[in-house]
Write a structure and sequence with these properties.
Elements: H1 2-18, H2 20-23, E1 34-35, H3 40-67, H4 73-100, E2 103-104, E3 108-109, E4 124-125, H5 134-152, H6 162-185, H7 190-194, H8 202-220, H9 233-252, H10 260-286, H11 293-307, H12 316-340, H13 348-366, H14 386-416, H15 423-428, H16 430-435, E5 440-441, E6 444-445
Antiparallel strand pairs: 1-4, 2-3, 5-6
Helix pairs in contact: 3-4, 3-5, 3-9, 4-5, 4-6, 5-6, 5-8, 6-8, 6-14, 8-13, 8-14, 9-10, 9-11, 10-11, 10-12, 11-12, 11-13, 12-13, 13-14
Length: 447
Amino acid sequence: MRKKILISVLVILGLVSLFSNYLFSSDTTTLTLTPAKFNHADVAWMLVASVLVFLMTPGVGFFYGGMVNSKNIISTIFQSFIAMVTITVLWFIFGFGLAFGPDLGGIIGNPIPNMFMRGVGTDSAWPGAPTIPILLFALFQLKFAIITPALISGGVAERIRFWGYLLFIIVFSIFIYSPLAHATWHPEGILAKAGVLDFAGGTVVHMSSGWAAFAGAIFLKKRRNTTLSAAQVPYVILGASLLWVGWFGFNAGSSFAANGLAVLAFANTTAASAVGAITWGFLEKINKQKLTSVGVCVGAVVGLVGITPAAGYVSIGHSLFIGLAASIVSFYMVRLFHKKGVDDTLDVFPCHGVGGMVGMLLTGVFADKSINEAVQHNGLFYGETTLFVTHFVAMMLVSAFAFFGTLLLLYLVNKIIPLRVDADKEELGLDISQHGEKVHHGNYPVH
């Protein structure tokens, strides 16, 4: 039965894509575009930035894959890879329209005018990125849509069925990610109009993935053996390094131009990550642990998460403080989760969810009009309260939407495809039980 369904899906997808020019109207009059006045330097930079952000998802794969037990390395890395494959197809069919199509009530876009990227070409521009083709803007945003579900995989690692995971990331992208992206980054989005600032995805990417991972950890319950021994520490270091490099595209690319704002976001990204890394290492020593390479890598990523929403709105000094604060709060949240027995396998919520919330709130503290004209109200640090209050309220609303929305999606997906692997398959390891593959160390197979 499953084979027939998959064959039918492939046949329908092939036929619809073949005749998409005739099936869907190219009328994009309801999608407000800007006449083309392209800057070649901006186009070149955004092509590079798009590649850098794409690189982050393999980085997540190695980062997570190195931290799990050896019998789950392949499956964990592959969960990131399959997100690149699946979300790309979804985005080109109707995902971009859901996130950035003509506004429907401030919470979602109308995907119909731009199905199969009709009208999304190289002769017009998105209003917020007037010097690059809208197709390039769409490709850049695709990379954000890809990495968000990939991040969630760390919270449910070592116990989720592959086909259930695949269906879940599809519905998550449709019903959680796309509404948040539209509400936050579309000019008519409800959060954008309320004045919420999210330069590169602290709310849209990190809070949503963090809360979704928390929901997944609760829904799937604990692993039968919660002992976790990082099987490949070099993978963790490699993954963190790829993430740091890719994050320059993530944050600096969100300026959508090769300009001074991109340079500032680049510098803020470097500063917050570095201080987050060393802070985590110091906290390990303060708490009578060894200073570990895995811990320092996690701290670097937390610093990157924290600065993401603020990268284009704050000074370098404030970015250092944000990286420091995010690392401290996430470090102790990880310890609290472990103490309370919450089995978020790779601490996605304490690091990405909490780090994103710290960054969102501190954006409301340190955002500065003199740095970016998009800032309508200065942050709390400068004596104004409007932005901070707006961010606090938005944080609560987004948290509730992402958490409870994900729980509902998990419940529905589980009715279609059971999400939790059987006990014997979990014990065997997902590499073999889900994919029939295994890692070898020298001449010795991993069991």
